[in-house]
Amino acid sequence: MTTAVHLEQALAKLKTTGVRMTPQRHAILSYLLDTMTHPTADDIYRALEPRFPSMSVATVYNNLKVFIEAGLVRELTYGDNSSRFDADMSEHYHAQCEICGRISDFEYPPLHDVEEAARNQTGFRVKGHRLEVYGVCADCAQVSTH
């Protein structure tokens, strides 16, 4: 599916939840849909600041919260205390480079049996799970071998 189709679907969903689409919100959402880098709020701010000089990092955070609550964006938290954001809401997993921090998506059949095992063994009402793989990306591996 193209970014334009995803954007139109997202705009329609926001309209049904009563969220007003401002130029800043449109730019933030478009940026997230266009990028595969899983940016931080600071990354988004720096990318959009030339077009929106009056926009603050707080504005970016506040709009990201609106998108998360609307189910359009996923927040990824890692050990470095910096949240990253992903507008790809499909079921997929992430691999993170331990050197440069790059996060890449990868497809694998959803591990629903893990959720079922957790539910059965703990009695939890399982809402979901997250799988991350850690290692060294191809670019960093190439640099470290030279």
TrEMBL record:
This is Peroxide-responsive transcriptional repressor PerR. Belongs to the Fur family. Keywords: DNA-binding, Repressor, Transcription, Transcription regulation, Zinc. It comes from Paenibacillus chartarius. It comes from the Bacteria. Pfam families: FUR (PF01475).
